[in-house]
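Tutorial, part two.
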Amino acid sequence: MKLANLLMERRINMNLRSRTKDEAVRELLEMIPSEGLHLDIETILKSIREREEVENTSYGRGFAFPHARTDAVREMYILMGVSRNGLEDKTVDGVPVHVICLLLTPSTIAKLYLQTLSGLATFARGEGTLDRILAAGSQADLIRLVAETNVTVDKELMVKDVMRHKVATVTPDDSLKEVANRMFRYRLSVVAVIDASGRMLGVIDDRDLIKAALPDYKALISNLNYSIDVEPFEELLKKEDKIKVAQLFREEYEVATPETKIIEVAAMMIFKDIHRVFVTEDDRLVGVLQRKDIVNMVIRG
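Running the prediction step on this input gives:
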């Protein structure tokens, strides 16, 4: 099914008056009563705000995707609004939010809800999409713009619907210090190792860094009286700019493709007790799916 087929002109506001995302959500919800439908707006707003407290739905690139699963609605609603001047809320990339895509579904709908969110995000990632939306003169023009992208909502929930597209990476020539800096900056325990063309080569994690400082860790465990002549972490700090990723990274990691079914990846994560899989296309790294993403996006919604 094409994403454009889910959009309705009467549920698109091409000139939002609101100055904040919260105000914009309420302004969009006010379009529903004009259709003769009566919804508990305050209950819906509460659900949306609770979801925002869990994670800010401002996506970047000028888009925000506030959403909620709530029993206050009996069908799925996609409401879109365009702010010509941009909203005042802070954003992850400093680009003001110009496009609000509000998605509401009953608690009983999960798959279509996630796939629709994924489709909207795919649409937003298109080069120049924001400029084309701001240039659109009518609701029909905006729907036509979505249709031209051929973004679809799939029948099955795939890895591409939930995965993170931004992945922290290093190259074999990067130093141990650069790895540690990336881990600290993004609060990560593992980073992917890629070559100049983006092809995935392996992974390096916090355990690998500690092992670099304690190459004789097995002797330490087996003999508590094992003598160490120097402080290992201090010595590692002296060499952190010289030790390269090529000396430490491992080639053992789990991968999936964007088209892999989520249920297959979830089963593999449980069976192998792993926290993440890297997503590749033709050996090139395109994303990562973490176990907590399945909990946050699929189970919690």
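The CA atoms of residues 169 and 192 lie 5 Å apart. In part three we will examine how such features are distributed along the chain.
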